[in-house]
Amino acid sequence: MNFTNMTRELAKYDIILGSSSSRRYDLLKDYLNIHDIKVLKPSFEEDLDKNLYKDDPLKYVHDTCRLKAKSILEEYYPGRYSTKELGAIIICADTIVVGPENQIYEKPITQEKQLEYLTKFCYSYGKKCVGDESVKVITSVALIKDCKDIGDKTTLVIHQFEEITKIYFDPDIPVDIIKTYVDSKDGLHVAGGFKIQGSSAVLIKGIEGDYYNVVGLPVNKTYKTLLHLIN
């Protein structure tokens, strides 16, 4: 199926983004050519106990995404938002930033905490920057196809996957540059305290993996999973 045909097929579904992230919305619109997107914010509080996931941050983001999708499905089901002939496709995602010792870096709510994160990324982890010593961005994506069946019944098809991108921060960047970025408030309230698509790019000397995964949604794997769903 070519890109044009896929766009045509996706138009037969209501596309529901279970996220308030403007970045994910833009990635779906600009790169997957999905323009009619309904946005529902998950009611799940994202309050899982991280102590239960100390050795497995990937399971933490998987479970968080799954519970976000579950809350959207409970809000959406049984299809009261669906107006299209084939039903709906729900897209949920969650992104975390993880250090070399599997510690999870949440969204900093203060500039002091953001500065603490970024100086550690550059001057502690940046000096290592090899293999598993890198900072990792992990995104979990859940895609749910809610198909209309005869008699207004529905069939749910669920796919969930994780994508990992390694980030190599520059240990030689002057601390004043980090402070200037923090003062801009650009990365405040974002996982890890930085937006790779913003001016924090000057702090990063390389990545390994999907760039768009760091932005908030792995475009390549999301596209291939959508293709599988509609086929």
UniProtKB/TrEMBL annotation:
Coiled coil: none
This protein's UniProt keywords: Hydrolase
Record-linked Gene3D superfamilies: 3.90.950.10
Known cofactor(s): a divalent metal cation
Keyword Lyase in annotation: no
GO terms, molecular function: nucleoside triphosphate diphosphatase activity
HAMAP family reported for this sequence: Maf
Name under which the protein is recorded: Maf-like protein
UniProt source species: Arxiozyma heterogenica
